[in-house]
Structures are given as structure tokens and as C-alpha cells.
TrEMBL record:
Pfam families, A to Z: Coprogen_oxidas
Biased amino acid composition, Basic and acidic residues: 63-79
Region (Disordered) location: 1-25, 63-88
Stretches with biased composition (Polar residues): 1-19
Keywords associated with the record: Chlorophyll biosynthesis, Chloroplast, Heme biosynthesis, Oxidoreductase, Plastid, Porphyrin biosynthesis, Transit peptide
Name of the protein described by the UniProt record: coproporphyrinogen oxidase
The family this protein is said to belong to: Belongs to the aerobic coproporphyrinogen-III oxidase family.
Length: 402
């Protein structure tokens, strides 16, 4: 792998690191400080800026340590870890970690039950600077070709230039904000589930929480928090009852909090999972949101919890209907072509994946979203009016399913 100095030196004069608004793996969260932040590299001052990026990147890619036992919490004691229950203003951190770990357990249990024999392999890891994660993967099961469900809790330091780029208005309003690194906290759950049967859809979901803390010697610095995430469906074939069921569950989760959420986040999902060079969407959408902090924090924590808890109800009934349907070699070949599109989006456009690869972290977790198999055919075009054509048309022209 190229050194960090080599990778940064090769950047063009006006390039930038754009940190992701969607992360397929919470381990990727650990690598990239998930903040929608941009760090610009200016050739006029190459040494100072390059050194900043090298130092910042070295902090971001601190290597994980494998653990033999799953801890009760990955939080620092001051955030509710160990025996300290007086977490004060950081209580959202403790409750969010509890939520994502419970969601991981419930989703994995449902996946194993539907598979009827496959079991998740679990890897537990920690980081010297605090935090850690649990990566679970079920591979070559009866139903799933590959299913990954990962959680992470991460502590790190964000350079002040990155913070200013992320929240310029807030930085400008605080004259006491000093050029010191800004501590951050990030936690998330992320999953991609690839079934074997071409009539059973792939599912992706991701929910995360992010905070920055004021530096100790800069009491006037702003402290920020935000939520992000979503759940989306990627079938190879359209069964309208399945897609309507999936979107209905997403809408029901949203409507419990704000009737504007579903139409807003549905469009956001269609716009984000867009393969520009194909002029088509990766799948049939769902909901997606990021940098969400313009509502009450407790409400958004409850909303993220509701969304994560709705995954099983949205997806498993579809799997039960489709996992045993007979299929042909042609059906399987089309599924492989659509998985090729999945790979293209994740490796070319998903900012979490691409930045994680550039900063050299835990490769198994970064690429857990990719299927075991995929296919590319030269100039493939489905016959107009065919079931394959109908799927492609829906990916090119997003529909309102409910």
C-alpha cells in the first residue's frame, strides 16, 4: 500500500478530502471522521497543508487491536462506560451505543433464523485512543451469499481547518475559537445483506451519531452534534407488493415524528444512490438523511432508534416470500449484473468507502458491503418490456411507490 505521504503528494492542486455522508461500514466511520467535512489542499503552501493532512490522517488510521471478548460498552468511563452512570450531557452517546448494539443483535438473530443454518462470524476490536467495534459477517449461508452487520464507537481528533469547513457559520460567530484540534465522537451501525436468490433483494441500512467537543483551552469553541443514516432496497426484479411494503414501513417510521420526513428523505435517498456514469439509481430507494440537527436532539435519537428497529419488519417478510422461489440461469446472470452496479456505486461514489480505502484502515470491514460475486457484460441491454427492463427503468426513473 502506498504511504500516506505518497497519496497526499499525488493530489491535484485543488483537490479535497470530502468526508462521507454515507458510510457502508461503521469501521469506515472510524477511519474517516464522518462529518461531511472538506479539507482543501492548497499548492501555494504545500508543506504546511501537506503536513497537516499527514498528521491528521495518521490520527485517523490508528490501527485496531483484536479483542477476545465483547465488552459491555466501548465508551470511555466519562461517557458512561465502566461503572460511571453519571454521563451528564454525553448521555446521548451511551443511549445511542446501546441502541445500535441491540439493533445489531436483533437483525443478526432475524438473519440467522431466516437462513436456517448460517451463523455470523464475529470480530471484536478496539482502538488505543478509545472506542472499538463489533464486525459480524455471515457468508455462504442457505439464503445469504454475504451478510454483514457492524457497529463501532470511535473517538478521535478533527483538525480545526476541517471543523471550520464543516461548520463555517458557527466558527465565524465564535471569536474565541482557537486553531486547536477539535475532539470528536462517532458511533454507528451499518449493514449490507446480499441474498443468493435473484428474486430476493439486497438491503443496506446505516444509522450514525456524531459529536464534536470544545478544545480544553478554547472554551468559546462551538460544540456540534448530528445524526445520519437510512435504509434502502436494491432488488434485481420488481415485485410491487414487496417494494410497497418496504416503503410503507419506512413511511410509518417517519410519520411517527414528522409527516415531512418520508417525502424529504425518500427523495434524498433517490438522489444520493445515483450512479452518474450510468444515469441510473443503484436500487429502488428508501430513506436517507445526513447532518440532521435542526430538530430536538431527543426526538432525533428516538427517530434513529425507530428507523433501526424497523429494519427487520421492512425486510424479513420480503425475504420469506422470495428466498425459495425457483430461478433460471438468466435470472442469476441479471442479478450479477445489478450487483456490478452495486460495486460501481460503492467504489466510485460512496464517499465512506473511497475515503476509507485512501486512508488505509481495516480493509475487511471497509469492503464488507461488496457481494461475493458480480458480473459485467459488454454493452448489455435488457429487452424492452422484459422484467429486467422494468427494473432498469425504475432505477432510471424513480417512482413513488406509496
Amino acid at each position: 500500500m502506498a504511504t500516506m505521504t505518497t497519496m497526499i503528494s499525488s493530489l491535484p492542486s485543488t483537490s479535497a478530502f470530502q468526508l462521507p455522508t454515507s458510510t457502508p461500514s461503521p469501521t469506515t466511520l472510524a477511519l474517516i471522521n464522518p462529518t461531511s467535512t472538506t479539507i482543501s489542499y492548497n499548492r501555494r503552501k504545500p508543506n504546511k497543508t501537506k503536513n497537516l493532512l499527514i498528521r491528521a490522517s495518521s490520527r485517523m488510521i490508528e490501527k485496531e487491536t483484536a479483542e477476545t471478548h465483547r465488552p459491555d460498552t466501548f465508551l470511555r468511563e466519562s461517557d458512561g462506560g465502566s461503572s460511571n452512570q453519571d454521563v451528564g450531557t454525553n448521555s446521548v452517546r451511551a443511549r445511542f451505543e446501546k441502541m445500535i448494539r441491540e439493533a445489531q443483535d436483533s437483525v443478526c438473530a432475524a438473519i440467522e433464523a431466516a437462513d436456517g443454518g448460517g451463523k455470523f462470524k464475529e470480530d471484536v476490536w478496539s482502538r488505543p485512543g478509545g472506542g472499538g467495534g463489533i464486525s459480524r459477517v455471515l457468508q455462504d449461508g442457505a439464503v445469504w451469499e454475504k451478510a454483514g452487520v457492524n457497529v463501532s464507537v470511535v473517538y478521535g481528533v478533527m483538525p480545526p481547518e476541517a471543523y471550520r469547513a464543516a461548520k463555517p457559520a458557527n466558527s465565524a460567530e465564535n471569536g474565541n475559537f482557537k486553531p486547536e484540534p477539535v475532539p470528536f465522537f462517532a458511533a454507528g451501525i451499518s449493514s449490507v445483506l446480499h441474498p443468493k436468490n435473484p428474486f430476493a433483494p439486497t438491503l443496506h441500512f446505516n444509522y450514525r451519531y456524531f459529536e464534536t467537543d470544545a478544545p480544553k483551552d478554547a472554551p468559546g469553541a462551538p460544540r456540534q452534534w448530528w445524526f445520519g443514516g437510512g435504509t434502502d432496497l436494491t432488488p434485481a426484479y420488481i415485485f410491487e407488493e414487496d417494494v410497497k411494503h418496504f416503503h410503507s414501513v419506512q413511511k410509518a417510521a417517519c410519520d411517527k415524528f414528522d409527516p415531512s420526513f418520508y417525502p424529504r428523505f425518500k427523495k434524498w435517498c433517490d438522489d444520493y444512490f445515483y450512479i452518474k456514469h450510468r444515469d441510473e439509481r443503484r436500487g429502488l430507494g428508501g430513506i436517507f438523511f445526513d447532518d440532521l440537527n435542526d430538530y430536538d436532539q431527543e426526538m432525533l435519537l428516538s427517530f434513529a432508534t425507530e428507523c433501526a428497529n424497523s429494519v427487520v419488519d421492512a425486510y424479513i417478510p420480503i425475504i420469506e416470500r422470495r428466498k425459495d422461489l425457483p430461478f433460471t440461469d438468466q435470472n442469476k446472470a441479471w442479478q450479477q449484473l445489478r450487483r456490478g452496479r452495486y460495486v460501481e456505486f460503492n467504489l466510485v461514489y460512496d464517499r465512506g468507502t473511497t475515503f476509507g480505502l485512501k486512508t488505509g484502515g481495516r480493509i475487511e470491514s471497509i469492503l464488507v458491503s461488496l457481494p461475493l460475486t458480480a458480473r459485467w457484460e459488454y454493452d448489455h441491454k435488457p429487452e424492452e418490456g422484459s422484467e429486467e427492463w422494468k427494473l432498469l427503468d425504475a432505477c432510471i426513473n424513480p417512482k413513488e411507490w406509496i
